[in-house]
Amino acid sequence: QVQLTESGGGLVQAGGSLRLSCVDSGRAFSSYAMGWFRQAPGKEREFVAAISWSGGSTYYADSVKGRFTISRDNAKNTVYLQMNSLKPEDTFVYYCAAKGSTGEYHTWGQGTQVTVSS
Hints:
Blueprint: E1 4-7, E2 10-13, E3 18-24, E4 33-39, E5 46-51, E6 58-60, E7 68-73, E8 78-83, E9 92-99, E10 105-108, E11 112-117
Parallel strand pairs: 2-11
Antiparallel strand pairs: 1-3, 3-8, 4-5, 4-9, 5-6, 7-8, 9-10, 9-11
């Protein structure tokens, strides 16, 4: 069973960096592709980045390409999102999610708030 817990959010000035972590307390982490999404109040959740089960393939939204890096450590059941050159428009609640064999993201964390001040 997958259970995801995010951490690492906070308040940072524009141009700064944060690293988000997402730990899976289950046993099958290395078999899942993982993704990061973000959502503002009253808005739809949007895709940020994804990584294959092996870490060999990564995907990014155009809005974060070149600034954010997704990575994973399967030995630690953890996926990371390194966020550099942060902008006020990166202010969202960030969620990690696990993708199953159906191609759907089926399990979500509780989210972590990232606030970027100008």
